[in-house]
Specification:
Helix content is 18%, strand content 51%. It is of the alpha+beta class and 119 residues long. A hairpin with a 5-residue loop joins strand 3 and strand 4. The chain starts with 5 loop residues before the first strand and ends with a helix.
């Protein structure tokens, strides 16, 4: 039995803080997310075709992370300087097979060649 709708999500976060001195502080925060899903909507014509063969449609995979680094320098009780840097990365893939070396892919590629050689 194959589920019609697959959704697997992994979310992680981490935070670290370092006091270099009484007036200098560093922070680092990282957020990570991984989504593996097979969008299936019975209302759409495209997905209705895959009702009896849900593995025939693509699977979407998204990896993303956000990292933020902060430095705070305190000069006095009323004066401070904060410098912040941040980066974001997102990788989105859509695939029908888990591996590019799946035997079904080679069968699809080689089958037309074999037909041509026998005729």
């Amino acid at each position: 039995m194959v589920p019609l709708k697959l959704e697997q999500t992994l979310d992680r976060s981490g935070k670290s803080q370092l006091f270099a001195s009484s007036s200098l502080k560093f922070n680092a925060e990282v957020l990570y997310s991984r989504d593996n899903f097979h969008p299936f909507d019975m209302g759409s014509d495209k997905d209705y075709v895959y009702k009896l063969n849900p593995d025939g449609d693509v699977t979407d995979l998204t990896n993303s992370y956000n990292a933020t680094f902060t430095m705070t320098n305190t000069f006095s009780s009323t004066a401070f300087l904060t410098v912040k840097a941040s980066t974001f990365f997102r990788d989105y893939n859509e695939h029908l097979y888990d591996s590019p070396y799946d035997p079904d892919i080679f069968h699809l590629i080689l089958y037309p060649i074999q037909l041509h050689m026998h005729s």
